[in-house]
Write a structure and sequence with these properties.
The structure holds 2 protein chains of 2 kinds. Chain A is mainly alpha-helical. Chain A has one domain (5-61). In chain A, 55% of the residues lie in helices and 0% in strands. Chain A has 5 helices and no strands. In chain A, helix 1 packs across helix 4. In chain A, 18% of the residues are buried. By secondary structure, chain B is an all-alpha fold. The termini of chain B are far apart. The chains are: A mainly alpha, B mainly alpha. The A-B interface holds A 5-6, 9, 36-37, 39-41, 43-45, 47-53, 56-57, 59-61, 63-69, 71 and B 7-10, 13-14, 17-18, 21-23, 25-26, 29, 38-39, 42-43, 46-47, 50-51, 122, 127-128, 142, 146-147, 167, 171, 174, 177-178, 181-182.
Chain lengths: 73, 194
């Protein structure tokens, strides 16, 4: 039986059990799909995080109402 | 940190912004693909979160709460924009290629500003462009799953979607990404010759 999308994801993350992984040695269709899936996953997890502008926190804090521990703004 | 912020300590508020500004901004930037707009939406998100921190329930993951508010801000914006321009990839309920084409966004040809140059550099890779072509619902799910490392269950809770829908969106998104990237590789091979 071909691998399900969930199983292909598990394989690409190195989490698929040995029994189901064996299927890839005998099914070129699943192997090709799994390899492509792994390429996409590797690209996704390598995506960088972007930073907002340097004054971002100051702009946010200027508009936040902070109730001091005493209860006053 | 959240408990400290709830007590009204400014340093805790600043620390929460510092910790979450990059993930929140990155999600929004990839959702709306416009730096200035993503920053506005990120500000709106943090202001809502920090002004409403007393209503935060600790049984919900704090980062999930922020992402929920950020995603809602992005989706609201995309819906508002779609009234004028329609979705980039067509209406989410479009079932046929014709329907998707008929409801797809109309892009204006514009000169490139310095900010757009930055955007093109940051979001110009094949994978970023492929993500940009996904429907917003798919985009949010795939980013939370593979960039933020959320489980399917956490994504369902964050985006208020049934678990089955999240799985479907992510599988479809990955299929579409594979398709875009394969097409791109084929084009490159075609240009470079045998």
């Amino acid at each position: 039986m071909h691998l399900t999308p969930d199983e292909i994801e598990l394989w690409a993350e190195g989490l698929l059990g040995a029994a189901r992984t064996m299927h890839l040695t005998e099914c070129s269709l699943c192997l090709a799909e799994a390899e492509q899936e792994r390429k996409v996953l590797l690209e996704l997890v390598a995506l960088p995080r972007f930073a907002p502008s340097a004054r971002f926190a100051d702009h946010v804090m200027a508009q936040v109402k902070i109730r001091a521990p005493s209860g006053e703004f | 940190m959240v408990a400290w912020a709830k007590q009204g300590h400014e340093a805790a508020f600043r620390e929460l912004v510092r910790r979450y500004e990059r993930p929140v901004f990155s999600l929004l930037y990839r959702m709306v693909r416009d730096r200035a707009l993503a920053e506005d939406l990120a500000q709106e998100t943090f202001i809502k979160v920090l002004n409403g921190i007393k209503s935060y329930k600790p049984e919900f993951k704090f980062s999930s709460w922020i992402f929920k508010i950020a995603n809602n801000a992005a989706i609201d914006h995309i819906r508002r924009r779609s009234i004028d321009t329609l979705s980039l990839d067509g209406a989410p309920d479009a079932q046929t290629p014709e329907a998707m084409k008929a409801t797809a966004i109309q892009l204006d040809a514009k000169g490139e500003t310095p900010l757009q140059e930055v955007e093109n550099r940051e979001l110009g890779s094949a994978i970023e462009r492929a993500i940009g072509r996904l429907r917003p619902e798919y985009r949010a799910c795939i980013l939370l799953r593979h960039v933020e490392g959320y489980s399917y269950e956490e994504i369902a809770a964050t985006l208020d979607l049934p678990l089955g829908t999240v799985k479907t969106y992510i599988h479809r998104a990955r299929n579409e990404l594979r398709g875009y990237l394969e097409d791109r590789r084929a084009e490159t091979r075609g240009r470079d010759g045998p």
